[in-house]
Amino acid sequence: MDRRACACLIIAVLLWRAPGAAQVEITPQASPEYSATLFLDPVAFLGPQPGETRLDVFVQVGYDNLSFVKSGDTYAASYEMAIRIDDSTGAQVLEKVWTENVAGLTFDQSVSSSGYSLQQRSFTVPPGRYAVHASVMDLESKTEKKASYSCVVPDFTASLVALSDLMIVSRITVKDGRKSILPNVSPNVGNISGAFYVFFEVYDRAGADSLRFEARVLDAKGEVVVRTDTTELVQTGRNEVFVRIDNSAMPLGDYLLSVRAVPASVPRDAPNAEKSYIASRGRAIIVRWNGLPRAMKDIDLAIEQLEYIAKDNEMSELKSGATLAEKQQKFLEFWKKRSTNPNAPRNEKMALYYARVNYANKHFTRYREGWRTDMGLVFILLGPPSNVERFPFQIDEKPEEVWQYYDLNYQFVFRDENGFGDYRLLTPLWEVYNRRREF
After folding, report:
1. Please, what are the domains in the chain?
2. Is the pTM higher than 0.85?
3. How far apart are CA 276 and CA 264, in angstroms?
4. Among 75, 145, 200, 257, which has the minimal tally of Cβ within 10 Å of its Cβ?
5. Coil, strand or helix: which one is 211?
6. 77-111 pLDDT, tens per residue?
7. Could you tell me how far CA 387 lies from the centroid of its own chain?
8. What CA–CA distance (Å, rounded) separates 295 from 307?
């Protein structure tokens, strides 16, 4: 009897999983890498009373989390916001709940991918470790979205000079001699054109007089990609400082932003200058671009991963971009041509494609990246199979896995020739490309 024919009789075989073997789950669709635009950023400052810390919690609620209803010639939405703070044991210590209204928007504003409602509430807490939770309940659809953030609230009185947490600022305006700032609640600074600002407070009890603030942006390898120094006169007590960071040459990626305070009397090139700082603070930031999935960190790799659907001339055009901005533009134009709704704020086909790439990398990577494997190719182009049959290692048979696609009336057979989970497609690759595909 053919072993595939008896597969339905041996249920245990289908559930067996070889250690390290590639696996695919049967799901309707791989979830896109876009997440709801709900961002949370707690920023700690010195509190009003000794031993207290003021925790300012900023929440950015993207309009795509809300259901807008037409009201006359404009559109409006309402939502309930809740911010809860738990201590290190998980016990709730503080909570604030209130209702917000967003009104007077045009239709284009209500569906804008960049539109959002910004909220801020302050809490007084002692130093310690906390978990901050925010939830948004859309009052029209009754759907709820949540975000959480773990943070450490420092004791700003433990040293003679201390820095508050770092706040990312996307815009500063000055009116009547007073500065007004727009916080960038999302950790993404890639959509802030040219430069962003870092705002923090300096608490001086030592009479430092003048300090040099050394701001550094380090990439995932720990290499400095941006550095800037700012010298400021400080007074005893509370001081406000803004540092401008040029992000024009920062590629896609994850970064650490670090600010250190050094006495201005210490020369930059002095021996052990790196160890001369008297206070420091850091935070994580990222660089992403609008319209690109959040998991995408390398535009060159993202272009390379299009080889399954891009024609030779399209790949040449995509790779011809001389700058990051040109590559991004060509990349987005490539996907816009394939979009079923080019005017939509999000390209769902692009999101789906890279969600599948991400899934393939997580589940099929062995000697090669998952997206480069035969399983990765089939999964990316055709999506998850309708059914999976797994045949483990036997003395006279090599491990095989069969993916069945009912809607295509076809199945693909993968065999692990060496027994190390490197499954290869037995049918020619053109059989994959000849099937009905989504991209």
Report:
1. 7-32+293-433 (no CATH), 36-158 (2.60.40.10), 161-288 (2.60.40.10)
2. no
3. 10
4. 145
5. strand
6. 999 999 999 999 999 999 999 999 999 999 888 87
7. 32
8. 19
